[in-house]
Amino acid sequence: MATVAPVKVPAPQIRQTNCFIGGNWVPSASGKTFDTVNPATEEVICQVAEGDKADIDAAVDAARDQFDHGDWSRMDARDRGILMNKLADLIEAEIDELAALETLDNGKPISDARTADLPLVVDCLRYYAGWADKIEGTTIPVRGDYLCYTRREPVGVVGQIIPWNFPALMAAWKWGPALAAGCTIVMKPAEQTPLTCLRMARLAQKAGIPDGVINVVPGYGPTAGAALVEHPDVDKIAFTGELATAKIIQRAAAESMKRLTFELGGKSPNVIFADADLDAAIEGAHFALYFNQGQCCCAGSRLFVQDSIHGEVVDRIADYNRSHPVGDPFDPDTKQGPQVDQAQFDKIMQYVEYGKQDGASCVTGGNRVGDRGYYVEPTLFTGVTDDMRIARDEIFGPVLSVLKFSDVDELVERANNTNFGLAAAVWTRDVAKAHRFAAKVRAGTVWVNCYDVFDAAAPFGGFKESGIGRELGEAGLAAYTESKTVTLAL
Ligand code: NAD
């Protein structure tokens, strides 16, 4: 991960706390609000409009009206791209303040928000702006005297539901392809982290993206989220979050045959062979799990280490953990901030207990840091076996499980012994071994001698219960289009 010179962080201004519907900033119809909390201090940052069914109905109406009668899906595609680039430019111009807002609401270190999250937001929007005028159909050589061709059309009104771990980036991953395709959007941000999404909507309006194209309704999942999923006028739901929530959504959306894409959780295997560049592998394995407080869907949470180097790898990761700067996320030297909320904190501490109960050894961490804020020590378990709860379940926190292996064939089987299939990584100097592992592992992304390398052009998504469909790249765009076949008698 690149590092930058420390900066003086501007105090983030809270400018938007209402729903953004049809270009207007409006309180929720019920007048209700909810608190969004600073995870570093446990203090309330502000109250945000608590949208529910009535607000979702109004937002879907605005999105439908814009899609059916407005100019977004009809304007020259190149002009859509120009407006998207303008949004990217405005975000880039406010990158420091947006990063600070993200840190305030989510607790992630400001240096990560500035060098990772927000630059990736800008890059994603620019990447998809470039696609806007390159969405092409094909001509098809059918039998007979006909001209047959396909058109790729926007899927329509899309409901987008995102989690709290990368609030701005998840919004960009969803807005980028939807906007390029000409769709209109109703987004429900996570209740823990609504602030950057609302600020980005303000910048979209400033960029000149027409009213009704992007609508944002903050609120809770079982109310606002469920209303969006059940709405008959929504053509597609794009969801990122937990597997259990995805299953509820899949059942609810069956009624209206909505298009669905899911980006879900993981329990990703990260494999270090004895022939790896150990300096790079150990630093990479540490980053793979502890980045973003361990709250990454693709976290390398099952670290498989070949037996001959096991001791060295464990010792060196433990050393990293003991000197890992955990603390105030606004301190530019901090590498690990607080977990996002009390519920996450409690869940992580419960898994630390499970690890101990199931017989693993807690080499570092396992405790709370300080008495204010949801901080957890970087935690490392060894002696972990495949059946333990810490090796099977997604913990979504700074808890690394190290598993030993000796036999390479058995390793692949063990790596695949999970219902998830989001990501995997392998560290080795043997290129053929790396390719063999990449071919055999059941995961949507495989990193070789690196981890968490993301690019807007490279598709990302899960095998098995880690999701359906792909985000990013051309595949991510395709999920926001319908293909129409036109046949003309000549
Ligand atoms: P979550 O499923 O609890 O919440 C995600 C979103 O769904 C929130 O906006 C929430 O309000 C909403 N929601 C909750 N119940 C709902 C319902 N009944 N109907 C409609 N919407 C509802 O997940 P989370 O705890 O916010 O996020 C963590 C999860 O997200 C982890 O499993 C993580 O792996 C996953 N994730 C996946 C990716 C990916 O790209 N694969 C990226 C980031 C996070």
TrEMBL record:
N-terminal signal peptide: none
Task: List the lineage, top down.
Answer: Bacteria, Pseudomonadati, Planctomycetota, Planctomycetia, Pirellulales
- Secreted recorded as keyword: no
Record keywords, A-Z: Oxidoreductase
List, from the UniProt record, the residues annotated as the active site of this protein: E263
* Stated name of the protein: Aldehyde dehydrogenase family protein
Instruction: Tell me the InterPro entries matching this sequence.
Output: Ald_DH/histidinol_DH (IPR016161), Ald_DH_C (IPR016163), Ald_DH_CS_CYS (IPR016160), Ald_DH_CS_GLU (IPR029510), Ald_DH_N (IPR016162), Aldehyde_DH_dom (IPR015590)
GO molecular function terms noted in the UniProt entry = oxidoreductase activity, acting on the aldehyde or oxo group of donors, NAD or NADP as acceptor
Return the Pfam families for the record: Aldedh
Protein origin, superkingdom:
Bacteria
Q: Which family does it belong to?
A: Belongs to the aldehyde dehydrogenase family.
Q: Where is the Aldehyde dehydrogenase domain?
A: 25-486
